[in-house]
# Entry
Amino acid sequence: MKSQIENRIDKLRLLLKEKDMDAVLVTKRENYVYLSGFNGSSAHLIITQNDAFLVTDFRYVEQAVKQAPLYEIIEYKDSILVTINNVIKTKGIDILGFEEDHVTCKSYREFEEKLNVKEIKPLAGMIDNLRMKKDKGELELIKKAVKIADDAFSHILGYIKPGVKEIEVAAELEYFIKKQGARGVSFDTIVASGYRSALPHGVASEKAIEQGDAVTMDFGAIYEDYCSDMTRTVFVGKPDEELSKIYNIVLTAQQNAVRGAKKGLTGKEIDSIARDLISKEGYGDCFGHGLGHGVGLEIHEEPRLSLKGSIIMDDGMVVTVEPGIYIPGLGGVRIEDMIVINGDNPLVLTGSSREMIII
Ligand SMILES: [Mn+2]
# Structure
């Protein structure tokens, strides 16, 4: 049976044929991890119809040999471009695809000037798009990353109390996440309490949590290169009446959008399930961000669920569903789960309760 990595390379090779490219040069980390299994911080892949090379430096040769058995590992010494040119020459590569979203202006000029090919062709997100539908192995790792975040949420509920600073809550969450086997956190942990909960991306500050505060926590774990992402808003003491009302609107919008996230719909159509409901309740202007985004090797990747989301949902895509309502001066509420598109019945990965929690 072919390995998952072999299947991924096969899919890429079909696309190369379609686009009349002899080879592709992969430089974006998430994409070389996906196509090779090598997860060090520096590698260039060159993939042709028949061969696959991984070019790296002295530090990573041993790791690459171990992690990327389908690749011929080449150690470069002085110039990576000279090494790539050797492969171009030996394999007779004329048209080489490259990742224009990832290459700096400087590298692009060097590619144009120094690579001995007839043409370098932008890949237009070809590999990123391959990554949208997750295979079985990826789903297992994502589930593990989600579980770590769920456990961290349960843990933190016992830690939050008046007087504790947001940064202390963030540090406790992150320490717990790492102790559970995560390599790190998916992004700077958001802990936004009281008036700060009206900031959709309020990274933890030195503000102390006070009685009556809403506390929004948005965080995630990276497990074996795969990310998770979740948000919950909890209350310390009895919530303000309007915040309590908002909580129920956000929860209904979130649950409707989760249930409505069906194969065949565009990201925009799913976004509108939550957006229309929030607008109807009179809070349309207070939901200023997209409903969700793809998650995988990157914390934010395609497909997007937003007003601009044109990609059609397909089985195996993993996305977040995270509506929010934010009222400056008062506070805000956001609830975020990760789901897998699965025909008409999306699978909810996040296990934590969405019911209002009052600490
Ligand atoms: Mn998110």
Q: What stands out?
A: DSSP finds ten helices and 19 strands in the chain. The chain has a mean pLDDT of 97.
